[in-house]
Amino acid sequence: MSARNPRLTRRHALGLGAALGLTALTQTAPSTAFATGATAAAAGYPKGLKPRLLTVFDESTLSLPERTLATTLQGLLARTGTEGLYLNLPSLGYNLWLGDLADRYGVRLQTGDLWKLLGRSRIDGYLLYKQGTPSVNVATSLAGLTGAVAVEESLEATAIRTGLRKVMDVRGKDDRWVLDRYWHRLRHDVVIEQRADIAERLRDYATMAGAFAFFDGNSAFRAEVVGKLDDDAAVIGWGDAANGEDRFVGPNSDAGVKAIPADHARNLSVLSGIREERFQQRGRLFDPALAAQGDLPKPDPDAHYVSFLITDGDNIQWMLGDFPTDQRWFGSPRRGELDLGWAVSPSLTDLAPTVLRWYYDRSPKDRFVVGPSGGGYVYPSRYPEAELRKHTSTLGRSMARADLSVVQIIDFDSFPDTRLWSSYLRQPEIDGLIYLEYSRYDQHKGKVVWAEGKPVVSARTMLWDGLPGADEASVTAELNAAPRDPSSTAGYSIVLWHAWSKTLDDVMTVVDGLAPHVKVIPPDTLVRMLGRNARP
């Protein structure tokens, strides 16, 4: 996770496949069809409108410049609630979400031609940019303000033949130019951090939301941007993690803003357009051997209780992409053989509610907890006190909507700081926390501290390829030798399995080797049992 130990960077293998009162930016006024911005959910995330019809394109059939054009068009169409656009990747989860929009939510689907769709829209302007330069982010930022699509210089002649007029030539312009001139008219609760060399991903959401899209590494300019944001605002995307993700998540936290990993996410402008107010997990909250009319009786005194929990569930792009289909993770044929824990971002309640419901509907035994470290990826010890209070209050409401009760935390050397954890645990929706030391996760070996009468449980051990004591045989032996005393905090174990180096098959290898007295239960059950039976 940190530069001190590059092997522990969580995402080292990440390359996975207010209304805007607008005035003219140039002498030509923007189309009136896009004179207002996206609506905002209670948690502050902008949302599109549910489309009645989606024109679907296989992403691979479009050139990179066409994809940028398509996504800015997609973002603008998501403001209308009429005909929308969807970029499909049939081999990933996007095909599942598309089918769900049609089957559950009654959205009609059709195929079509990108330029004909553009011609049918009421959009009549374009912003001219040059591929591979910062001007693509400039065009993305201004698309939401002007109601114009982004057109790469190689497509300009076609755009003119289609009847579009040039609103502005932004070639040679950069993020500083946008910040200095238009910051007062862009959103301050959400910004998009996206590399200029990623042509299509996340740009639809930036356009729909009317949000500032930028990328400048871990620079003074970046610090200035996050410093200008509202308290507990969201930086959606991903920064420069070449020397560790803490290089940008840390400054975010210092400024009191959260990161939502999503730089490879597609179709958020469309997926956010569905409204779902409440969600219900299907998986068992309590182990059936313990359940008595929905309550927790006295546990087996000769048992040791363990939960297996995956890392990196805060990663929106992964949850949308290959997580649901890949056999390493949720797509494993062995999923369902045990009560397994998965982490998820509560931001999905607004950014992609159909996706969250899809996961819950297909999880008869799985249980979900909040990914690190709450409403987004933050280091709580570096969050200013007032902003952390706001963050955890908003988090509690989001967790109530999403039927979540436990939060993963990642931080540096903060495990004993019970005053810090009180900000989370005073929220009635939160039963407890699971603490992961940044480097390495199981440093505190299952110790528990208490705040507000609720437990903060550290990981006892972990599965992580190449690290000592983190292989299947070592983890199995440690669990089998762990104390059999559920009246003690030592009678419970959390095992974190590293999403990028271990698979569900590896988890099952451990489970298959456990002694009979080691009982696997979901992580939220474990937190509740520990809180009731192992008081300090």
From TrEMBL:
The keyword Signal applies. Gene3D superfamilies: GxGYxYP glycoside hydrolase, C-terminal domain. Residues 1-35 form the signal peptide. The keyword Signal applies. Residues 303-529 form the GxGYxYP putative glycoside hydrolase C-terminal domain. Residues 123-186 form the GxGYxYP putative glycoside hydrolase second N-terminal domain. Residues 54-119 form the GxGYxYP putative glycoside hydrolase first N-terminal domain. InterPro entries: GxGYxYP_C, GxGYxYP_C_sf, GxGYxYP_N_1st, GxGYxYP_N_2nd, GxGYxYP_N_3rd, TAT_signal. Residues 188-273 form the GxGYxYP putative glycoside hydrolase third N-terminal domain. Keywords: Signal. This is GxGYxY motif-containing protein. It comes from Kribbella amoyensis.
